[in-house]
Amino acid sequence: MSLKKFVVNKARPLPVIILADTSGSMSINGKIDALNLSIKDMISSFASESRLRAEIHLSVVTFGSKAATHLPLTPAHQIEQIENFVAQGTTPLGAACTIVKDMIEDKECIPSRAYRPIIILVSDGYPTDDYKNAFDALINSDRAQKATRFALSIGNDADNDLLESFGNDVEAPLLFAHNAAEIAHFFRAVTMSVANHSKSQKPNEPMKLEFVNDELADDDLDIPL
């Protein structure tokens, strides 16, 4: 009998990329603290997940004083720590979109065998750079079109039209967090949904957000019905 029949299939990467607004306005009302804690909790949860079928990889691209790769795309179980975000500067979303587009198109970073990426954009303001071409290039790129994309509008001053055009979940193209607690609620829903998706029979299908009724009621996040 051939030994090939006993070779264990290697888990396929499931990329999760977060576009996180870290502009100065995120320092208000505990928003940046909630984001920091939420990302750390997400990493801890992802690191403990089974890697039989899908291995969750996580990256965080921030846009504040400048757009930067805060965390390169890394298997979650290999992430030992992540530096806290510091809220400062403006909102260079366009530059961040270029970073993410380059990342998802890089076949060494995300190989062809990887599952469809999940891209999450969170922001509490309007872009301050010439973002349109870079934003359009990202969402119209082949891999981003196939990706599952969610957007979270934080507070009362976000560019909701832009954020809604980013999301591609027909049931919830845009979610809203009115305070720091709701930022944490959103990320708990994302964390749970990605974890369950990674263990499903079809991790390459579009992912749906799952909400825990006792802490993620529809009126908390203004989920369209």
From TrEMBL:
InterPro entries on file: Tellurite-R_TerY, VWF_A, vWFA_dom_sf
One family from Pfam that matches here is VWA
Which residue numbers delimit the VWFA domain? 15-190
Tell me the first and last residues of the signal peptide.
Answer: none
Q: What is this protein called?
A: VWA domain-containing protein
Q: Which organism does this record belong to?
A: Alteromonas hispanica
